[in-house]
Design brief:
10 helices, single chain, L-arginine/glycine Amidinotransferase, Chain A, globular
Length: about 350
Amino acid sequence: MYKTNSIRYRMPAEWEPHKATWLTWPHNPTDWPGKMSSVQKIYAELTQKLAVVEEVHILVNSESHEMRAKRYLKQAQADIANIHFYHIPTNRSWIRDYGPVFIADNRTKKSLKKIMRFRFNGWARYPAHQKDDSVPLELANRLNLKIISAKWKKIPLVLEGGSIDVNGFGTLITTEECLLDQNIQPRNPGITKCELEELFRDLLGITNVIWLNRGIEGDDTHGHIDDICRFVDRGTLVLAMETGKSDLNTSILAENMERLEQVRLENGTKPTVVMLPMPKPIYYKKWRLPASYANFYIANNVVLVPIFNDPADRKALGILSDLFPTRDVIGVCAEDLLIGLGGIHCITLQEPF
């Protein structure tokens, strides 16, 4: 175990107080073919709810893009006074994965906020990602925040926000399928588990890494953690579980449960693990979509949860309401959003104070 006073940086947990939420307004029709209007209404609904409890910062490509967003926001009766636009070109709208990772510097009196810049390679799958990759640098300049380049052996380190989740006290959870893959969608070819753990310590203040195995079916990110397991406080995790015997996710999620039974947190205690149901499989044409209630977003005073017009919606909302007694847990219909192979957590990014 590392000594606390040797840790310089800290990545705050999502459930800690936010200064703002960041979004990128939809603009790429290939993500949501035939559903762009519907998806923008979902964005407007999310933004309306978020703007009640914290600032919302939205990236847009142009003045006309901003005006389009404002039309949808006006229809949703969003508080425009608490919404701010930044003209920064992007390829796509999944800001969770390419946006800045905000960290606190423990060696300053006020724990000064900085940006840890990881690189984005399109999930090692999509070639058009150069604009997205530049977003952290652009925002560091706009926000006047110091930026630190995350590197491994002098090579820029690739990491997506949706591939990790932290409890804010030194524990990080992720999957081997995503971060250790060397063949299918490799982020950092040649890197070892031990090297990653050392980097997480130095860059994010992580002294304890929990490794699950795989992500769910339909996830084109190849194993993002935010579809299967999330921290809701320092010592509590929610884990998606599938009960259908013939479902492909059943064995995947059961193995992850077995792993969690053996792990410890940074302070040596066992985490509390709460089961979240899975919705019935959802398909678009012939493709299975990565539907999961674990893809929720925690904001100041509210938790926004994807729902799918499924009998399990009510159960999932009830479980999360019990886990967040001081926040309003709100279901947001996310079936059309899911066509883009992502959910509510994928399109949002928290900025701590």
